[in-house]
User: Which sequence fits this backbone?
């Protein structure tokens, strides 16, 4: 991986999981990173891990006013940014018959609407030649039980990746998506009992051609590749899924 000395990067949802892994890789290579999250304790812990090249900002991806304030903060801290990872998102498990309007609205507001307006508000601050990476999911192409609303949001992100890539071409900004599969990021443990989470991870590994789950660092490396090194790629989706959607 090339050095990123002096590069300025914004990562929403950067206090845990893929976002924190990407922030760690980038700061280790000299980048200045601004991460966001909703939980102040998690942000403080992430900031402590990342060191002096990181700024942690409390911001809710579902709040348009928070996104406006984030844009102001990025302008004040960086002036311009070299990459934006629109990564903030949440899981939501429920059978189709039991999916509530509240759950549906929450998933779409954070996972799709939040990403859309994050890119809209921060695009004016992106340098020419910069890269935007949106985080979607393999659920956008698979019919997975318990995830119908989550999958709808993921599919919306895949679609907007193409549309935003086209619209930002005149500014020479590339827009791509990373599509994680079964990744052991710790998010399952937040949504269900530990034993149930372990059973689900074991099932995910058994259903994956590579017979294992991935790591946040493996997703992070794909995100960084799309942001900086994939200079002739835009509108694309890179699956990081152990072959689950390909084989």
Assistant:
């Amino acid at each position: 991986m090339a050095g990123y000395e002096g590069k300025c990067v914004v990562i929403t949802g950067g206090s845990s999981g893929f976002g924190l892994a990407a922030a760690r890789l980038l700061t280790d290579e000299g980048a200045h990173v601004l991460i966001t999250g909703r939980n102040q304790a998690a942000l403080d812990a992430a900031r402590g891990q990342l060191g002096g090249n990181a700024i942690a900002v409390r911001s809710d991806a579902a709040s348009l006013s928070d996104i406006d304030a984030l844009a102001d903060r990025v302008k004040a801290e960086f002036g311009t940014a070299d990459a934006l990872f629109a990564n903030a998102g949440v899981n939501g498990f429920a059978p189709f018959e039991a999916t509530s309007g509240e759950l549906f609205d929450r998933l779409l507001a954070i996972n799709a609407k939040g990403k859309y307006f994050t890119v809209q508000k921060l695009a004016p601050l992106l340098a020419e030649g910069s890269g935007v990476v949106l985080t979607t999911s393999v659920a956008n192409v698979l019919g997975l039980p318990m995830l119908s609303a989550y999958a709808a949001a993921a599919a919306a992100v895949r679609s907007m990746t193409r549309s935003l890539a086209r619209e930002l071409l005149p500014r020479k900004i590339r827009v791509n998506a990373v599509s994680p599969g079964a990744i052991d990021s710790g998010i399952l443990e937040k949504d269900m009992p530990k034993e149930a989470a372990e059973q689900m991870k074991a099932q995910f590994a058994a259903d994956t051609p590579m017979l294992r789950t991935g790591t946040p660092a493996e997703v992070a490396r794909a995100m960084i590749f799309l942001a900086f090194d994939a200079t002739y790629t835009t509108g694309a989706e890179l699956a990081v899924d152990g072959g689950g959607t390909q084989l």
